[in-house]
Design a protein that fits this description.
Strand order of the largest sheet: 6-7-8-3-9-10
CATH architecture: 3-Layer(aba) Sandwich
Helix content: 25-40%
Distance between the termini: 6 Å
Radius of gyration: 19 Å
Number of strands: 10
Structural class: alpha/beta
CATH superfamily: P-loop containing nucleotide triphosphate hydrolases
Order of helices and strands: HEEEHEEHEHHHHEHEHEEHH
CATH topology: Rossmann fold
Strand content: 25-35%
Shape: globular
């Protein structure tokens, strides 16, 4: 949809926090993340401000919005990946099952074990298919029944049948879609509860994209998924809940803000905010 959003100024009016954080659901769900007044700064630049909403267990939550609105910055807060960015400062709270992820005594490494991440471009290690999946368990000392663990992860990523006879071959010999599923297998091999997927299909062809989307539907039986996507059709196809972020622009600043959060069907058919409707209908973005 291009980058027209880079030149559009959006005045964001306050939205009731209760409306954002407690969107109606078809059934009662356990809250995995309770995000409270989250803000992220890189030095003097505020990237995201005032984000409040809940993320529910065994659901797929999509984060959509124009380029530069802080989608990736937001999900990297969920497993403390922004800790690795020089000058990044996270304000507010993210409660994970009631515990503040940024509280004193919380080990970021353990956070990332429980909350796995798959990136935009497939990034397999220059190792064998087997060693890619076994790498995390080995590092964490999870060596018992390693063969079974590797097979289980590859089955979970819908890749086992395609690679079971060539596990010792280089992961780099796989197609792009297979490499991305391998990265998912690598992430789930250490048994996280949550998977964060940052544009997981944007570098893939339509057939591989369909495969990844079908995989996500299966994964939510065992995991909570949060996906960043520029592809609104993809969000509509895979997500249970959708958060729409946009840009607040003025006085030389560009800050990502949460505009609306609700069930995906409502976001795409009957949004509560005009700015959401403008975005999902292609009027801007």
């Amino acid at each position: 949809m291009g980058n027209r959003s880079d030149t559009i100024s959006i005045d964001v009016a306050p939205v009731e926090i209760a409306q954002r954080r407690h969107a109606p659901l078809p059934e009662n769900r356990e809250v995995v993340f309770d995000v409270q007044d989250l803000g992220v700064r890189y030095g003097a630049t505020t990237a995201v401000s005032g984000v409040d909403f809940d993320i529910y267990r065994n659901m797929i939550t999509a984060v959509i919005g124009p380029s530069g609105c802080g989608k990736s910055t937001f999900i990297r807060c969920l497993n403390r990946m922004n800790d690795l960015v020089p000058g990044a400062q996270v304000d507010g709270k993210i409660l994970y099952h009631g515990e503040d992820l940024y509280g004193s005594g919380v080990d970021p490494v353990e956070v990332r074990r429980r909350i796995g991440m798959v990136f935009q471009r497939p990034n397999p290690f220059p190792k064998s298919i087997y060693d890619n999946v076994a790498w995390g368990p080995r590092v964490l000392g999870m060596r018992k029944d390693l063969d079974e663990r590797v097979e289980r992860a590859l089955r979970g990523a819908a890749l086992w049948e395609e690679v079971k006879d060539r596990l010792k071959r280089s992961a780099l010999s796989l197609s792009g879609g297979q490499q991305q599923r391998l990265c998912i297998a690598r992430a789930i091999a250490i048994e996280p509860e949550v998977l964060l997927l940052d544009e997981p299909a944007s570098a893939l062809d339509p057939i591989a994209t369909t495969s990844i989307e079908e995989l996500m539907h299966g994964l939510k039986r065992d995991f909570t998924l949060v996906i960043v996507t520029h592809n609104m059709q993809q969000a509509a196809r895979v997500a249970d809940m959708t958060a729409f972020f946009s840009l607040e622009v003025g006085e030389g600043r560009r800050t990502g803000v949460l505009v609306e959060y609700d069930a995906t069907e409502k976001i795409f058919t009957n949004p509560s905010d005009q700015r959401t409707e403008d975005y999902v209908t292609g009027r801007f973005g």
